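Re-run requested by the PI after the first attempt was lost when the workstation crashed. Everything re-entered from the original request form. Ligand of interest: manganese (II) ion.
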Amino acid sequence: MLNENSEVKMLKEKLFARRENGGKVLSDEVLSKCEDFGTEYKDFLNKSKTEREAVKYALNKAKNLGFTEFDKSKKYSPGDKIYLINREKNIVLGMIGKNGVKNGVKIAVAHIDAPRLDLKPNPLIEDKELAILKTHYYGGIKKYQWTTIPLSLHGRVVKKDGNYVDITIGENEEEPCFCVTDLLPHLAKEQMNKKMSDVITGENLNVLVGSMPFKNDSGSELVKLNILKILNEKYGIVEEDLISAELELVPAMKAQDIGFDRSMIGGYAHDDRSCSYCCLEGILNLKEIPEETVIVLLTDKEETGSDGNTGMKSFFLKYFISDLANQEELKTRDVLSKSKCLSVDVNAAYDPTYSSSFEVLNSSFINRGVVVTKYTGSGGKYSTSDASAEFTGEIIRILNNNDVLWQSSELGKIDAGGGGTIAKYIASWNINVIDMGVPVLSMHAPYEVISKIDLYMTYKAVHSFFK
Ligand code: MN
Ligand code: MN
């Protein structure tokens, strides 16, 4: 074969944007770091199936590394490591920088909520001697995907006396799990002709939880009675306690390597516990005191619009930054205006099976590294937070200078749909913010797929931004 003209080769290297598979260009040393990081991450994913559990995991790890609960009346110095919890569903972690907050703070934000099935306030019914829990789905899901898979139940029930009990059932093989039933194909002639969005409706997402009637007695609803008896014996709760409870049904599957080459990880809620984990590790692994104060926020309710007192639209983070500003007798607005933020969130990885929904040049690909997304939104960039040329350039320089493998992407084809992240809420505080994160296959499905390389590179991106 003829050698490519050396001038052409040189010019290509100089002028073309690089689009490379990390498996090809990363050293064995880096690839083994990707592997190790993936192993730890799988453990996190298995232990953190709800936002409360993710907060707990982050808190334990942070405390072990010397983070202490923030007390606004105390005076903090460079290198101090602090945390603050909001309603057990948000955690903010901070490390005071050499310059404090006078030049602004560096923030990385990710969300720890994920699509799931919540129990309705009155969930338990008995129908033809089957006990069923009625659910209300949370987040954007393709409902049919949530039928006929093993589900576990996680959450908190507050009892009449004010005490609460945390429930986790269905994660271990010895425990029972639950599932949503579906109609057999033999009788599904009518169902098969429905539009996909009508095949399984919200009211079809009923979870099977029992079939055994209360023994040695007569009357109605004996299966339901038997279930309530079991719940009462095990957890000390009664039916009325379910009204206030936060009980979530999530896929019971464990995170696992995908592929003969084990290059990928399958699991529930990579969106966005993958990015949350990268943010968490990004701050926990800081070895030296950063110039500016760095902050990580793991937030809730992103999948439902970031509303509520634990969503990104709450003032939790703003108040925290405000308390830091007060320490140095600075105005919050002056600190915010100088601050920078990574909105770390997943993006849709190119899927060759569904190629018509993607525009190849502006898609993200498995193994090409962390995805930088300059803007999100839908249609004519509706509801977008568009990072400026200057800030995007600054972030890309950081990635290049720290050997972070990265790629750039939009979210699918222009008119295929679209979506947003929490970036716009942070941008509204007059903060420079850009989206980046892990490319995901089958996003919002009960079982999503990411690559170990992309996960590690997202961590490296956050860590490089901080240090
Ligand atoms: Mn997300
Ligand atoms: Mn999502």
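Saved to the shared folder this time. The longest strand covers residues 116-127.
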